[in-house]
Specification:
This is SDR family oxidoreductase. InterPro entries: NAD(P)-bd_dom_sf, SDR_DHRS6-like, SDR_fam. GO terms for molecular function: oxidoreductase activity. It comes from Amycolatopsis mongoliensis. By secondary structure, the protein is α/β, with parallel strands linked by helices. It has a single domain, classed as 3-Layer(aba) Sandwich (Rossmann fold). It has seven helices and seven strands; from the N terminus they run E-H-E-H-E-H-E-H-E-H-E-H-H-E. It has helices spanning 17-28, 40-52, 67-78, 105-133, 156-174, 200-209, 219-230; strands at 8-12, 32-37, 56-61, 85-88, 136-141, 179-185, 240-243. A seven-stranded parallel sheet has the order 3-2-1-4-5-6-7, sandwiched between helices. Helix 1 (17-28) links the parallel strand 1 (8-12) and strand 2.
Length: 251
């Protein structure tokens, strides 16, 4: 029996590296995956791979920063048998590698404003349907962490802290309706770093060096954990953070 058989899952940013891994894991566990994003060609590529592996995937162009676009898509998915899982993995436009004292205000605040806006819109759209069916899971990614000394991350940690505050409030308000809210947190995923990223090799070594297992989490690791957390086997988990860091983050 697959973990997510009969479930409908929206993955925003389904064409990105993490979104692809999560969507593939969801489909492998039996979910019908709805890939949402702004670049249809990339989404279709991911959907084709999922279908070739025997999974079910649908594609839709959705602007996850636009309320009407998000609401209309969520309504359409819910009409297809319910909306069980919502995971927003769009990029936040953060600038990294630049010290705060050298950073422009726009670059600092962009990830904060983007993260809060998109997560609010997608969580709200999904939760409205989940409350009616008295079940569902809102997944968050990132998690609030300690200040990073070795590398300048701009407004990224501020964005993560804001999302954690939102997740806690959603968990409290939606819990009585059977809806869960959980954050997946890693210590960094080297596979997500683009080629030519400044200091990439040093950063990769730093990520792995901080773990207790001597290796960093992979995209496949994140997908597998996300599928479990989204399943009914994790039905007791809400208002919590799941550590997918190979021991880099100590709770």
């Amino acid at each position: 029996m697959t973990l997510l058989a009969g479930k409908n899952a929206i993955v925003y940013g389904g064409g990105g590296r993490i979104g692809t891994a999560v969507a593939s894991a969801f489909a492998e566990e039996g979910a019908r995956v709805f890939l949402a994003g702004r670049t249809r060609a990339r989404l279709e590529e991911v959907a084709s791979r999922i279908r070739a592996a025997g999974g079910s995937a649908e594609v839709a162009e959705v602007d996850a920063l636009d309320a009407r676009s998000v609401d209309d898509h969520a309504d359409a998915v819910a009409a297809e048998g319910g909306l069980d899982i919502s995971f927003n993995l769009i990029t936040h436009g953060d600038v990294q590698g630049t010290p705060l004292i050298d950073m422009e205000l726009a670059d600092y605040e962009r990830p904060v404003l983007t993260a809060v806006r998109t997560q609010f819109l997608t969580a709200r759209a999904a939760a409205r349907h989940m409350v009616k069916q008295r079940s569902g899971v809102l997944l968050f990614f990132g998690g609030a962490g300690e200040p990073v000394r070795e590398f300048s991350v701009g407004g990224l940690q501020v964005a993560f802290h804001a999302l954690e505050a939102m997740r806690r409030q959603l968990a409290a308000e939606l819990g009585p309706h059977g809806v869960r809210a959980v954050t997946l947190r890693t210590g960094g995923i080297p596979e997500t770093l683009p080629a030519g990223f400044p200091g990439r090799e040093e950063l990769e070594e730093n990520i792995a060096g901080k773990t207790m297992l001597g290796r960093a989490a992979t995209l496949a690791d994140v997908g597998a954990v996300a599928a479990f957390v989204a399943s009914d086997r994790a039905r007791t988990m809400t208002a919590s953070t799941v550590n997918v860091s190979c021991g880099a983050l100590v709770d």
